[in-house]
Write a structure and sequence with these properties.
Blueprint: H1 3-18, H2 36-42, E1 66-68, E2 71-73, E3 80-84, H3 92-104, E4 109-113, H4 117-132, E5 139-143, H5 147-153, E6 159-162, H6 182-206, E7 209-215, H7 221-227, H8 231-247, E8 253-258, H9 262-279, E9 286-287, H10 295-311, E10 317-318, H11 330-340, E11 343-344, E12 347-348, E13 393-398, H12 406-412, E14 416-418, E15 421-423, E16 431-434, H13 443-454, E17 458-462, H14 463-468, E18 475-479, H15 480-486, E19 496-501, H16 507-511, H17 513-516, E20 521-523, H18 531-544, E21 551-556, H19 563-573, H20 575-579, E22 585-589, H21 594-607, E23 616-619, H22 630-641, E24 648-652, H23 658-661, E25 667-673, E26 676-681, E27 684-691, H24 692-705, H25 714-719
Parallel strand pairs: 3-4, 3-10, 4-5, 5-6, 6-7, 7-8, 9-10, 13-16, 13-22, 16-17, 17-18, 18-19, 19-20, 20-21, 21-22, 23-24, 24-25
Antiparallel strand pairs: 1-2, 11-12, 14-15, 25-26, 26-27
Helix pairs in contact: 1-2, 1-6, 3-4, 4-5, 6-8, 7-8, 8-9, 9-10, 10-11, 10-19, 10-21, 11-19, 19-21
Organism: Hemiselmis tepida
Signal peptide: 1-22
Pathway: Isoprenoid biosynthesis; isopentenyl diphosphate biosynthesis via DXP pathway; isopentenyl diphosphate from 1-deoxy-D-xylulose 5-phosphate: step 5/6
Length: 720
């Protein structure tokens, strides 16, 4: 696709794209397919229907090999792990120490920010110092705004990362620029080529690798004016630079499409892969969710984004960007790679399910499948409508012995309590899955169940358990084969039936769902079967048959799985379905405590852009550009503002991605200068150069000024 033909196409196409520039859940993804007639008339190449090698089993997308130092990146090699130092690059010894510690933790490559001549000169000393200590780990220079600096550092570092959004275009201003004719657009492309070509030739001469790394938060003003803030713009931004590389027969490069929103990130990489299939390109992919944050939330968002793509065989090198010390990123990297490689303690997770063909999922659409919520029937003794939530449901697994301590159980389920009575809160489990019988003689346990039902918490239990020990107004859970044989006759006291499906059933057995009409489906894929592909098979069947039964993803973790394992595996294996809009909730079963599994469930729904139950943070992982103690400040902000569901706050160490990522945030806290903070509302800076000691208080006041603040409940304050 030539730049001139693209420009002729984009002027009329922009009107089609602009209204979708703010990507939202359920919205059709903007892409070059938005106006096929215009595209055909302009001679523009369109994205292929294929974005991965197979949608029914995990196969790595074939790529060429890119060589960064002595590390080979591509489909014929293990997925390479990398991270980024947080020391100032001008601090030579600090940077050397960071690199060594990261390498010792398992990093195959380590990236350092190189923002000016002083840092570029330090790079020579850093490389020399590492070699003297026997460390040959390839070093990657992170370049923004500085083509001349890139030329300098290409003489000593092994790989250069360029950001197409600011390499040649300079600092983003977010001014609206309207290109009246193709000549204006072409003039911009000519300037990019003039600026970027020397680095291409330098890398080719020196044998250096390159990453063309688009960031959702730092698209150029030119790209924004045509595409808006969209995945299509991210792809085209990278392709502008790739065409220049190819023009000079330089192919030792790879791509990345990073965003803080996992859904945008996944859509951009899939669109990129589809375009490369269509063009016959085979460049590797570097995966990452940028500004993912810290702790469980950062790991969950990374697992949803990176894990979803790895499940489809996309990705050749990965970085988990956490607001933590860089060497701590390597453990989740290793775990995600382990899941992708199909092995976890000798269990194979990437095994194919029975033969089937996918016809209903369009990877370019991302439209949510809407399950039919429970309907109230005349004569129902309880309100059945509350057992599921319209934005995504959480079902918590409860053993019968937990009922012996009702107050502790209510707490673990996220209930508020008053005089011993539970009440639903914003992040209360919608239903429980009771795993064993509760004797009729256990009055305290029976009272606890009744009280939960009275406040809208559903009680689901296996039909065999309810036959042994009936519970009034319970939902009886049948295996699909069991339900088909019995006609789903309800046990005594049960009010509705639910069905467990594995995705490994035969086609005739799945066909029984149409006649059963269950309240919900629990999708529980057995060990040894690929969850993502079994799930896709089930949703393919439901869509083809026109069945709107809500589906809860039920995933069980063994006792050997710690908290990080639970987060990363759940995010990878369930998140891939949720980002496609397939699923109405989650039920996580495992050995960690019930409260943790509940909050992880809500974290999965929020990370998948389904249900917001807490403040969302867009927090960068820190690097040598960071102008304040990011970890400490992020913790302080989260402690003060973590009780504001529906509010998104960006915490950025510097200006590089800061303003752009404000597109995904309501409020922003961005380092503007040493000791000084700029505050944003959306993309607009509203308060500048605030002393760091006063900035968190000013942020809180800003939130109050915009009527987004609520005071913490007494219970929440006491919990801290």
């Amino acid at each position: 696709m030539h730049a001139s033909s693209l420009a002729l196409f984009l002027v009329p196409l922009f009107a089609c794209l602009h209204e979708a520039s703010a990507f939202s859940v359920g919205a059709r993804l903007p892409s070059l397919r938005r106006a096929p007639a215009l595209a055909k008339a302009a001679g523009v190449r369109m994205a292929a229907d294929k974005y991965c090698e197979s949608v029914t089993e995990t196969k790595r997308r074939p790529t060429r090999t890119v060589l960064a130092g002595d590390v080979k990146i591509g489909s014929e090699h293990p997925i390479a792990l990398q991270t980024m130092t947080t020391s100032m690059t001008s601090d030579v010894q600090g940077s050397i120490d960071d690199v060594m510690r990261c390498a010792d933790a398992g990093a195959d490559l380590v990236r350092l920010t190189v923002q000016g001549n002083r840092e570029a000169e330090a790079c020579y000393k850093i490389k020399e110092g590492l070699l003297k200590k026997g460390y040959t780990t390839p070093l990657v220079a992170d370049i923004h705004f500085a083509p001349k600096v890139a030329m300098m550092v290409a003489e000593c570092f092994d790989k250069i990362r360029v950001n197409p959004g600011n390499f040649a275009d300079g600092r983003k201003t977010f001014k609206e620029i309207n290109y009246e004719n193709p000549e204006d657009y072409q003039a911009e492309l000519d300037f990019i080529e003039e600026t970027f070509t020397p680095l291409v030739l330098k890398c080719k001469e020196e044998g250096r690798a390159m990453r063309i790394g688009t960031n959702h938060g730092s698209l150029s003003a030119r790209t924004l004016s045509y595409y808006g803030d969209t995945p299509a713009g991210m792809v085209e931004s990278a392709f502008e630079f790739a065409r220049i590389c190819r023009k000079h027969d330089y192919h030792n490069f790879l791509f990345s499409m990073k965003a803080s929103n996992p859904k945008v990130m996944v859509s951009a990489y899939r669109l990129l892969a589809a375009e490369m299939y269509d063009l016959g390109w085979d460049y590797p992919l570097h995966l990452g969710v940028t500004e993912a944050g810290e702790g469980e939330d950062g790991r969950m968002k990374s697992a949803i984004g990176i894990g979803s793509l790895l499940q489809d065989g996309l990705g050749d090198t990965i970085r988990v960007s956490l607001t933590e010390d860089p060497w701590l990123e390597l453990d989740p990297c290793k775990k995600l790679r382990g899941i992708a490689d199909g092995q976890r303690e000798n269990k194979v997770w990437s095994q194919a399910v029975p033969t089937w063909r996918e016809t209903t999922r369009d990877f370019k659409e991302f439209t949510k499948r809407e399950g039919q919520l429970p309907l109230q029937k005349e004569g129902d003794p309880i309100d059945i409508r509350n057992v599921l939530h319209r934005d995504g449901s959480v079902v918590s697994v409860v053993p019968p012995e937990a009922l012996s301590s009702p107050d502790a159980l209510y707490h673990d389920l996220g209930c508020k309590t008053a005089v011993g009575m539970p009440f639903k809160d914003l992040a209360t489990s919608d239903s429980i899955l009771l795993t064993g019988p509760v004797p009729a003689s256990d009055k305290a346990a029976r009272t606890a169940l009744r009280r939960m039902q009275e406040v809208g918490i559903g009680v689901i239990s296996p039909a065999a358990v309810l036959k042994e020990s009936p519970i009034d107004n319970a939902i009886a859970l049948f295996d699909l084969s069991e339900a088909a044989e019995s006609g789903a006759g309800l046990p005594e006291g049960a009010i509705r039936a639910a069905v467990t499906v594995t995705g490994a059933e035969g086609d005739q057995e799945l066909a029984e769902l149409k006649s059963l009409d269950p309240l919900l489906i629990m999708l529980k894929v057995p060990d040894g079967v690929s969850r993502v592909h079994a799930s896709r098979r089930v949703f393919e069947h439901l869509k083809k048959e026109g069945l709107e039964t809500p589906v809860i993803h039920h995933i069980e973790h063994g006792s050997e799985h710690g908290k990080d394992d639970v987060v990363l595996r759940t995010g990878s294996e369930v998140g891939v379905s949720l980002v496609d809009g397939n699923g109405d909730g989650v039920c996580i079963q495992g050995s960690p405590d019930l409260s943790f599994l509940r909050t992880t469930s809500f974290g999965l729904l929020q990370g998948s852009r389904m249900r917001n139950t807490k403040t969302e943070y867009v927090s960068c992982p820190s690097c040598g550009r960071t102008l304040f103690d990011l970890q400490t400040v992020t913790e302080e902000i989260s402690q003060s503002t973590g009780h504001l569901p529906g509010v998104t706050i960006a915490v950025m160490g510097c200006i590089v991605n800061g303003p752009g990522e404000m597109a995904d945030a309501d409020f922003g806290y961005v380092g503007g200068a040493p000791g000084k903070i700029d505050l944003y509302v959306g993309k607009e800076v509203v308060r500048k150069a605030i002393p760091s000691a006063e900035a968190v208080g000013e942020l809180i006041q800003l939130i109050k000024d915009h009527d987004r603040w609520v005071d913490k409940d007494v219970d929440e304050e006491g919990a801290e």
